[in-house]
Amino acid sequence: MGDWKTTSKRKWGMWAGPPNNHYSQMVYENGEPCWQGGSRTTTVTLTCGTETALRLVKEPSKCQYIIDFETPVACQPVLKQRGVHSEL
C-alpha cells in the first residue's frame, strides 16, 4: 500500500454520498503525484458509530485510496439534511 499518511497535499474535492445521505462520503483529489502515474485521490466514507475510529484503508488501484471512517458526527441528522457544510 502507498504511503497515504504522509501524502498530505490532497485538496478538498466534493461531497459524493448518495442522494439520501450526500454528506456521508468525501472526495479529496489532486494530491501529490504518483510515481509514474497521476495525482493521488482519496475517498472517505463516514459511517455512524459510537466512537471515532479509522476502520479501513485500502488502495484498490495505484494511488487511489479508500478510507472508511466511523464517527458519532455521522449519526447527526444535520449531515444528511442540510447543505451548509463544505467539509468536516
Automatic annotation (TrEMBL):
<dbReference type="InterPro" id="IPR009011">
    <property type="entry name" value="Man6P_isomerase_rcpt-bd_dom_sf"/>
</dbReference>
<feature type="domain" description="MRH">
    <location>
        <begin position="1"/>
        <end position="77"/>
    </location>
</feature>
<dbReference type="InterPro" id="IPR036607">
    <property type="entry name" value="PRKCSH"/>
</dbReference>
<protein>
    <recommendedName>
        <fullName>MRH domain-containing protein</fullName>
    </recommendedName>
</protein>
<dbReference type="Pfam" id="PF13015">
    <property type="entry name" value="PRKCSH_1"/>
</dbReference>
<dbReference type="InterPro" id="IPR044865">
    <property type="entry name" value="MRH_dom"/>
</dbReference>
<keyword id="KW-0732">Signal</keyword>
<keyword id="KW-1015">Disulfide bond</keyword>
<dbReference type="InterPro" id="IPR039794">
    <property type="entry name" value="Gtb1-like"/>
</dbReference>
